[in-house]
Write a structure and sequence with these properties.
The chain is α/β, with parallel strands linked by helices. The protein is built from seven helices and 26 strands.
């Protein structure tokens, strides 16, 4: 028969076992919790590293789009290694806006990649097929056409494209994957829509904003040539009462009878040819379907824009400057933004491509040819005379005055045209200049499987 002492010893042993099991289970739980917490923290850290690579790459790639033709990029195909059989991906079209397969980005050691199973042709690729090294990881970038209504994914109709970046941060060499590699990468996918700044997609070879203009035109050897859709001289001023009617009239009054047919192009405010092609484009700009086009009506926009160009100008000059023969402001293959903060005298032979900004007065003599945009903005004083000179693209002459509250308003610029001065509207040259401007970000987001856009034709 058990004694009371034996019963107490048995109960104590049972409690000890129970407590021991509880402590063991608690320890295992805490261990599993710690492992989970560590894994989560590590995964979050790895994702942040991949995101930093993608975000840094985005700024680099967006900057590299300056001066490039978007249609050329969209229509250029690159053979990209394929590490997964494309038939395993829905529809066999895994490259919807992606520069590479996301599953490859996750699993492939791009420092020492395995043998690919094939290749796939990818349009719009902006990086090498093997990626670009950035910090401790790699990134891949691609542009794709947006739904611009032309039904052609290799042609840009609206100066806007999708830009997608995949950032890859290699994980420690410890995780075995199905791709016979020893890495499991962290991946971040960033997608943006970027567009050209089309504020300066001007519609004439000579554009003059302001309530009036002090203009002098002498001789009959000059020419200002638009086309059937663009006038020779475009004037504009955002005044709902009379707009730029006074400016247009001043240009007309500056012409003698024999010089009126030297300004040609679309029918203007003074009738069809042989009347000079001079048009008040204010209302046309107001109603332009491209909202960026309306920016030019705002003197504050123009003044701030010109100031912002100092940070991206390829060549910057300060003070009164005289450029004699042999001057070159960019070439056709390498256009530049040239910024002259002051008065400038261009004489002798010379040439240029891109954007030429002058904040002071411009005295333009000699046989100097320029292709692109010439912005005489600030003093708004342009005097063109002397030997043959051509501006192919467009010129804006704008006088900016203090509006009394720290901003700008348009004043009456001064324009003189003498001798053999030739202005020729050319949309290709204007587009070349516009391409030199930084791309604007219209939309930005990080892509996850939950918000991947539905696959469309582009």
């Amino acid at each position: 028969m058990k004694t009371k002492k034996q019963n107490e010893e048995g109960m104590a042993l049972l409690f000890a076992i129970i407590i021991s099991l509880f402590v063991t289970v608690l320890g295992l739980g805490l261990t599993m919790f710690s492992i989970t917490e560590y894994s989560s923290a590590r995964e979050y850290q790895s994702h942040q590293e991949a995101f930093a690579i993608a975000d840094g790459a985005y700024n680099m790639v967006k900057g590299s789009l300056r001066g490039q033709d978007l249609t050329t990029l969209l229509s250029t195909y690159t053979n990209v290694p394929e590490y997964v059989d494309s038939t395993a991906i829905s529809g066999g079209t895994p490259h919807y806006r992606n520069p590479i397969y996301p599953i490859d980005a996750r699993n492939i050691d791009f420092r020492n990649p395995p043998q690919p199973v094939g290749t796939i042709r990818v349009p719009g690729l902006l990086t090498p097929p093997s990626g670009t090294l950035l910090g401790t990881g790699y990134f891949f970038a691609r542009v794709s056409d947006n739904n611009d209504g032309d039904s052609d994914t290799t042609f840009d109709s609206d100066n806007s494209v999708f830009l997608r970046i995949i950032g890859v941060s290699p994980a420690p060499l410890a995780e075995i994957t199905s791709h016979e590699s020893f890495v499991k990468n962290a991946v971040s996918v960033i997608e943006t829509m970027v567009k050209r700044d089309t504020s300066f997609n001007i519609g004439a070879p000579l554009s003059i904003p302001g309530p009036d203009v002090n203009i002098r035109i002498k001789g009959t050897a000059f020419s200002i040539t638009g086309d059937e859709d663009h006038p020779g001289v475009s004037v504009f001023y955002d005044d709902m009462g009379s707009d730029a009617a006074a400016t247009a009239q001043s240009v007309y009054n500056s012409l003698n009878k024999n010089a009126r047919d030297n300004i040609t192009g679309a029918e203007g405010d003074f009738g069809a040819a042989p009347a000079p092609s001079i048009k008040d484009d204010t209302d046309t700009i107001r109603n332009n379907p491209d909202p960026s086009a309306q920016n030019i009506l705002d003197a504050n926009f123009l003044g701030n824009f010109v100031e912002s160009l100092t940070s991206i100008a390829d060549d910057y000059y300060e003070g009164s400057t005289h450029f004699a023969g042999g001057t070159e402001f960019g070439t056709e293959s390498h256009p530049t933004i040239t910024y002259i903060d002051g008065d400038v005298h261009l004489s002798g032979n010379g040439s240029g491509y891109g954007i030429l900004v002058i904040t002071g007065s411009l005295r333009y003599t000699g046989a100097f040819d320029y292709n692109g945009l010439v912005l005489v903005v600030g003093e708004g004083d342009a005097d063109l005379r002397g030997a043959n000179k051509d501006i192919t693209g467009g010129m804006i002459v704008a006088k900016l005055e203090d509006d009394g509250s720290g901003g700008y308003e348009y004043g009456a610029p001064t324009v003189g045209i003498y001798g053999n001065s030739h202005f020729l509207f050319d949309s290709t040259s204007i587009n070349l200049a516009i391409s030199m401007l930084p791309m604007q970000t219209v939309m930005w987001r990080e892509i996850t499987p939950d918000i991947e856009p539905v696959m469309a034709s582009n």
